[in-house]
Amino acid sequence: MKYFEDIRVGDTIEIGRHTFTADDIKGFARRFDPQLFHVEEEAGARSHFGALCASGWHTAAVWMRLMIDHRRRESEAARARGEPVAGMGPALGVRALKWLKPVYVGDTVVYRTEVLETRISESRPGRGLMTVRSTGVNQSGDLVISFISTTFVERRPRSPSPPLSFC
Amino acid sequence: MKYFEDIRVGDTIEIGRHTFTADDIKGFARRFDPQLFHVEEEAGARSHFGALCASGWHTAAVWMRLMIDHRRRESEAARARGEPVAGMGPALGVRALKWLKPVYVGDTVVYRTEVLETRISESRPGRGLMTVRSTGVNQSGDLVISFISTTFVERRPRSPSPPLSFC
Asked: How far is A59 from chain B (nearest CA, A)?
């Protein structure tokens, strides 16, 4: 990951994309959200969603997975260039988490983050705080999920001060 | 579920409890949040958390499961009493989702919800909106997760108006 100092408000990245299969949707839902429209095609068709669709918590969990994969790719690329890798986390929490449209079988959701705010941490020296808006958009351009989260990011280590000279 | 009219601000319920095992924590994390402190004991011990701990999204997903189980128990009990069951959903989203303490192997989290606000829906006739704060507290009394969510709840069907009488 980039150091805090290298992150700019407005920076936008695509962290990855995921195509939701029926097995994928039902597998998550059987374990964590067994509402019938998340586990049975017929019940989905009869529901107000009109078809089997993913649990909102599933759509959010997929974001987390893609974010981890993205960070690992970034870290590996930095190491390959011989650059240091900044530490990140923990996350402080999430606000304004909205599920705006259902995610159906076969939908491909592209997840992006945009940096909304950066500020130096008052509580943790050596860390900054980065606030990002994360979104997921399906193949029709519909926003399906959106949320805002704030995470600690390591600051660039300061080079030692030059020796004081008295003249 | 209760009809909207039967829900009172301040109503608090325990929806269920869950003990997080190592397999449980690693199983979720391998699929959705493979940060090392969520998948390996040794990495957890070396991390700022001090031990293997659950992904925050896992702690949230367990809430969803317990909430569905709770609603089903409530609905079955109402049907057994010959009472009608109110429809619920969809959820509009979540705000102020905070992971306040790590959830470690062996922790038992008790999940509760408290009704913060009820109001009649302006957009959907026949529905009300219920806003609840959901919390998870571990066996030491520490709050580990907290969030606020708003969901549609069916209103009690009106009995037909008595015939107008002109005198």
From this structure: 10
